[in-house]
Design goal:
Structural class: alpha+beta
Radius of gyration: 30 Å
Number of strands: 22
Bound molecules: 2-acetamido-2-deoxy-beta-D-glucopyranose
Helix content: 10-25%
Length: 368
């Protein structure tokens, strides 16, 4: 009898345990090892135990939470809890990151932190929950309900390390074009200007700077090439996080806020309320003024070669029509005494017209 009760209890506890595991956290398999985070630089996940082992450290009154475990997830959120609790003016607290995520590509996500800004943690968006409350049980819905949550521009991106070329998205309309650019840095020095080239037209996912035309390196890039990872538009301002295409760099991400022809930069993610016309507190922040690029006769060469292509196409079309008429006359002239090879040739000729040009819609990135 005792043994039966024991067996039933064991059975129930196994079921409960399974239920518990099922409502826990599943992180996408790509979040394993080194991940580039626009908010924090390189961070480290261990997918097998749903752990964020490095990169999201938070210091509170000279104590630090270092490791966070994902304790619950759904299709829009991951809830991370610090592995330790720290004393804050008496009671002990755990720190919780409420990560509201959206997949962009197989190698990139963007996210918001659904917590208020915490003054005791240098304004990080993180929730402090008392140990006794945590021990009684917390969930996504009980933790992730900020009264003053993030604004649209406060997004961040996660990119699998070394996958910068696989996460390209389109730039916002205001940045698509070829421009000359004038850069004003934090100490009011002015660079570039007339003759400089900002090309986000050749590829709508890529900004290429021509360092021959203006040698000032932009946003820590030695090659002068950046890809858009994600942009959002709020009011008349678009915010885009760009990723440096260089294989190694100390500045992987930069946010550009753009409104009209004015752009401001901030290293990493955008800052709350970032204006397109003023520097942020970041010492590397610059303000850029875009102007229409003055095409020279040399740089206008592509359009004259377009004229060449059009003329060529017309000539080929005329030749084809002439050939078809000639073939038609030839066919009718010898129609009364056909040879087998003539018939085959005409059928092949008509098949030729069935060919269609390649689909061009798979070019470049996907607009989000
Ligand atoms: C534009 O994209 C194509 C295809 O991805 C690439 O071959 C080319 O080098 C790119 N051009 C520039 C200027 O980045
Ligand atoms: C950059 O400018 C130089 C000098 O005008 C030019 O020769 C070169 O082709 C340009 N590079 C690109 C990628 O357009």
């Amino acid at each position: 009898m005792n043994l039966n009760i024991f067996a039933i209890r064991l059975f129930i506890s196994i079921i409960l345990k399974i239920d518990y595991i099922e409502c826990a956290c599943t992180l996408p398999t790509v979040l394993n090892g080194n991940i580039w985070d626009s908010r924090r630089g390189t961070i480290v996940f261990s997918n097998s135990n749903s752990e964020l082992s490095s990169g999201w450290e938070v210091s509170v009154l000279a104590q630090t939470w270092t490791i966070f475990n994902c304790i619950e997830s759904d299709s829009t959120h991951w809830l991370f809890q610090s592995t330790t609790s720290v004393e804050i003016y008496g009671p002990k607290y755990y720190g919780f990151y409420c990560v509201r995520y959206t997949k962009i590509t197989d190698y990139s996500y963007y996210y918001y932190l659904d917590s208020n800004m915490e003054v005791n943690a240098a304004d990080t968006r993180i929730s402090f929950i008392e140990e006794s409350i945590v021990n009684a049980g917390v969930t996504l819905s009980s933790v992730c309900n900020p009264t003053s949550g993030p604004s649209p521009e406060e997004f961040h991106v996660l990119v699998k390390k070394d996958r910068q070329a696989d996460v390209k998205q389109w730039f916002p309309d205001a940045l698509l074009g070829v421009y000359a650019y004038t850069v004003t840095d934090a100490s009011s020095s002015v660079f570039c200007g007339s003759g400089s080239v900002w090309d986000a037209c050749t590829n709508r996912t890529t900004i290429s700077y021509n360092y021959t035309q203006c040698s000032t390196q932009m946003f820590g890039s030695t090659d002068g090439e950046f890809y858009a990872t994600k942009y959002v538009t709020s009011g008349s301002t678009s915010y885009v996080i760009i990723i440096n295409a260089d294989s190694t760099t100390s500045t992987r991400f930069t946010c550009l806020a753009v409104s009209g022809s004015s752009v401001s930069s901030n290293s990493g993610s955008c800052v709350k309320g970032q204006s397109a016309t003023t520097n942020t507190a970041d010492s590397a922040s610059v303000v850029i003024s875009l102007s229409a690029y003055a095409f020279t006769s040399a740089s206008a060469a592509p359009s004259s070669s377009n004229v060449g292509i059009i003329v060529g196409v017309v000539v080929v079309l005329i030749l084809l029509i002439a050939g078809a008429i000639g073939g038609f006359i030839f066919y009718h002239k010898y129609k009364k005494k056909p040879f087998p090879w003539q018939k085959t040739k005409v059928q092949n000729g008509s098949e030729e017209n069935a060919e269609k040009p390649d689909d061009e819609s798979k070019a470049n990135g996907v607009r989000v």
